Amino acid sequence: MPDDALLRRLQVMELVQNWAVWRDAGDWERFRTVWAPEGRMMATWCQAPAEGFIKASQEGWAKGVSILHFLGGCSVDIVGRRAIAQTKMTISQRAPVHGVVVDVVCTGRFYDFIEEREDGWKIVLRQPIYEKDRMDPVNPAERLELDPDLLGRFPEGYRHLAYLQSGIGYEVKTDMPGLKGEKVQALYAAGAGWLRGEALDWEE
Question: Which positions fall inside the SnoaL-like domain (predicted)?
């Protein structure tokens, strides 16, 4: 039924929106409800089961780590009880880099493997796609010089974000999917397999 199909798409979109609102607000109890029991998060700074990601986020929150998300358009494909959602997003993080407080803004997409369970739609895997980023001093009068060798170690799509995160003590994963390339094509293939009912096949 067309109305039922629209309702299910809206439910998936609401799930995606709840993830960003509840995570950024520190509403950890409701944030837990968006995940399947085996749910997993793949972020530059943390690749872990959902509960591990929540713990790491809480620890960062307590230390003053500032990571926020803003969502744009969302495309949802549903086959049976499975869905793939792609959502335009930005990740914003503020921290000092070489003594200068900066904002990094990374543009990309959330690529979510989602399944309908007895208690509603749940995220089984979230894999961001990192397309481009930039770093700006919060005070534009301050001058910032980056280490070009360190910056060059990270992929183009999130190199400034990785530079900041490594500087505050995180071990950053250096092979995340970007706008183009084999890694993102493999992610799309895993998503297509998910919709066909295949087991989730995605490397950490």
Answer: 5-126
E strands, the chain, are 35-42, 47-49, 66-79, 82-97, 100-117, 120-137
Reference 108, options 155, 59, 163, 38; nearest CA is 155
Residue 65 CA: distances (Å) to CA of 3, 79, 121, 146, 165: 42, 38, 29, 21, 10
201/6 Cα distance (integer angstroms): 28
How far is Cα of residue 14 from the mean position of the Cα atoms in its chain?
16
Give percent of the chain with pLDDT exceeding 90. Answer: 93
Distance in angstroms (rounded) separating the CA atoms of residues 53 and 137: 28
How are the residues of the chain apportioned to helix, strand and coil, as percentages rounded to the nearest 5?
Answer: 35, 40, 25
* Tokens of residue 149, six digits: 């060798």
